[in-house]
Amino acid sequence: MTDALSDLLSFLEIRGARCTRFEAGGKWAFRFPAKPALKFAAVLRGECWIMLPGRKPQRLTAGDTFLLAEAPQYVLANDPQLEPQDGLASFDWEHSDIARHGGSETALLAGSFVFEALHVRLLLDALPEFLLIPAGDGTAPLLRGLLEILDREIHSGQMGVSFVTRRLAEVLLVQVLRGYGTRYGNDGASWVGAAADPRIGAALNLMHADVGRRWTVDELARAAGMSRSAFAVSFKHRVGTPPLDYLLRWRMQVARSGLLRGETIAAVAAKVGYASASAFGNAFKRIHGTPPKRYGSADRSMPRDGPEPAGATGEQKPEMVERQI
Question: In the chain, N or C terminus with fewer CB closer than 10 Å?
Fold first, then answer.
């Protein structure tokens, strides 16, 4: 059965964009620019500090893994008092995935990702700006094992290394998200944390496994092993929206993606549980602010909408955009 996290990550079409290694010794501090990206990094050896705007410096030690969502400008240093150098201009990142400065007492491994621009908010909006999975967390041994394999691949120079490092980076991302869901899932409304909850996650899994079914709150509550009222309150607290609102919005995400792939309006409407063209069109426009025919091809079996209002503008099909640090 499809689970919510797998469905969402598949829907996002996440690809590991690049994996890099950074080694440093002596006294050092480097500043990296803000970019609308998702990046993970882990300390393989030694220790350092990360400094983010509006936060106290965070000490990182061997085994710690962190995630930056829409990474702001940040500084990595082994001495927070040092004036940082430009972390991009100081190394030849264009021609090498490995950067060294003054030794190798501290080593970090990092990766960044590409997303389909249309759906990137689904992930970035669900995550905090900075997420730390410390070395003592229950997921740390698995993360360390993945990082060791990833590190060997980066240095191997063998054929297929780019393919392997991309796939390992994706697996590492899933493990970090699992760690976040388990460790911080109760701290705020987020589908990542909700998916890790055994009861709310069970309801999410059902909705994602059969998005076109006419689910009721009673059915979902029974699947979660909760009363209807307790389930409704808990779901909204964990996810941020009521159950059927979440289902509606996810249906319209699936619908928009299908239309952009060239599926007909009739096929998409049926897939997300609508027998009526007008009902589907109204729901789609309510969520996306534009009728479905702006995204996909009309189908003769479904009545077309009336003329578009003068001066109306629609969204264009997005390109795949690379988001790297």
Answer: N
Instruction: Give backbone dihedrals phi and psi of 258, rounded to 5 degrees, phi first.
Output: -65, -40
Cα(282)–Cα(304) distance, integer angstroms? 12
Structure tokens at 256: 């928009």
CATH of 4-184, picked from 3.40.50.200, 2.60.120.10, 2.60.120.280, 2.30.130.10, is 2.60.120.280
Name the CATH code of domain 191-241 (choices 1.10.357, 3.30.200, 1.10.10, 1.10.287).
Answer: 1.10.10
How many other C-beta atoms can be found within 10 angstroms of the C-beta atom of residue 121?
12
Q: What is the pLDDT of residues 20-54, one digit of tens each?
A: 899 999 999 999 988 777 888 889 999 999 999 98
For residue 87, give the DSSP letter: T
23 neighbors 98 (Cβ within 8 angstroms):
yes
pLDDT at 125 over 80: no
Helix (H) or strand (E) holding 321: strand 320-322
- Cβ atoms of 41 and 233 closer than 8 Å: no
Q: How many CB atoms lie within 10 A of CB 278?
A: 12
- How far apart, in whole angstroms, are the C-alpha atoms of residue 261 and residue 259? 5
- Give CATH for domain 245-308: 1.10.10
Task: Kindly state the DSSP code that residue 293 receives in the 8-state scheme.
Answer: G
CATH 2.60.120.280 domain span(s) along the chain: 4-184
Chain length of the chain: 325
pTM: 0.70
Q: CATH 1.10.10 residue ranges in the chain?
A: 191-241, 245-308
Cα 190 versus chain centre, distance: 11
Strand partners, 109: 21, 42
Question: How is residue 147 written in tokens?
Answer: 């990082």
**Dihedral sign, Cα of residue 80, residue 82, residue 84, residue 90:** negative
Residue bearing tokens 């290394």:
161
- Rounded Cα distance, 150 and 166, in Å: 9
